[in-house]
Amino acid sequence: MKAFHNQASIFPVGYHANRIYWSMRHSNRRCKYMCYIEEKEAEPLFKVKVVEKGHDDLILTGPTPKAVWDQILEPISQIRSSSGTLKLFPVYLKGEDLFGLTTSAVTRIIESLPGVEACDRYTFRYGRNPLMEWPLAFNPSGSARSEPKACQAKRPYLLTSIAPRCQGSVGSIVGLVPGVISLSPGESVAGAHQGRHSKSSQYRRMKAEWKSNVYLARSRIQGLGLYAARDIEKCTMVIEYIGTIIRSEVANRKERLYESQNRGVYMFRIDNDFVIDATITGGPARYINHSCAPNCITEVVTVEKENKIIISSCRRIQRGEELCYDYKFDLEDDQHKIPCHCGAVNCRKWMN
């Protein structure tokens, strides 16, 4: 862990951010810079992919954020000086800032990741939630979602949804990848008080407000969990389950890879062809735990011809209450049962 942080920043492997900045080739144009943090020989490797229309993609790497961004800032400074445009002063620009690691929202999420306590040289900006000081008691991966990977028998999940409804019916859940939660594209939830608003407008509002809806903290159910940062009304879109969209065949291979690396597996099926892989590049929604008495439900929402997985409230949720939904794992025999720790009055004692 020593190489993956300094006093000002933590460098999580799998981090990905996009930045629009001045072009290295044209003084009056901007282009996209895709920033990545990877691991190579137990050291962080910082990578920037330069994407500019009319040019081949250029990949730059360096041992630090500053080292890789200096390869970009120097050409930009030279071309802008030669063309007489406003000068840049690379010496005053920090690589961590250009990677987005010092952005407040990003810093809050990074400081809530499991294992940050090992970053002894890092100075916390926001501090830890008191619940985070508790030891991770039940599993090292931080969420009950990853527990099925410990089962010896791997069989697809198949279970008809019995989740609470806000309006209309909910389709069946068909999991084609073991350990992957999935939905049929026809699933829908719409609150009576939001019925007159389109799904796309509700989605846009959720994307603008989700950071004020939730916070990450130690869960009383399992590992880490997501909590309501404010009172949330029934049938409100709370947060999107994000990650890398991959094909089903790739999901099978990645699951085996993650298991060989002893990682927790966080995947969510969109439809029969595509799966959202949140194991490395996912957001806080992957930490939402299972409960037999859930206060949330998952739904597929189509926005701009793309299917999105949305976590919506199925009842009114009070501030400070942990968010949860029913994973609906397939029923297994006694040998492969996964214990449930939700503590609900109607707890089924087993997740499958």
TrEMBL record:
Compartments, as annotated in UniProt: Nucleus
InterPro entries assigned: FYrich_C, FYrich_N, Post-SET_dom, SET_dom, SET_dom_sf
GO CC annotations on file: nBAF complex; nucleoplasm
Protein EC: 2.1.1.364
Catalytic activity: L-lysyl(4)-[histone H3] + S-adenosyl-L-methionine = N(6)-methyl-L-lysyl(4)-[histone H3] + S-adenosyl-L-homocysteine + H(+)
Domain Post-SET: 336-352
The keyword Membrane appears for this protein: no
Superkingdom per UniProt: Eukaryota
UniProt KW keywords: Chromatin regulator, Metal-binding, Methyltransferase, Nucleus, Phosphoprotein, Repeat, S-adenosyl-L-methionine, Transcription, Transcription regulation, Transferase, Zinc, Zinc-finger
Enzyme class: transferase
Membrane-traversing stretches: none
SET domain span: 212-328
Protein name, as recorded: [histone H3]-lysine(4) N-methyltransferase
Phylogenetic lineage: Eukaryota, Metazoa, Chordata, Craniata, Vertebrata
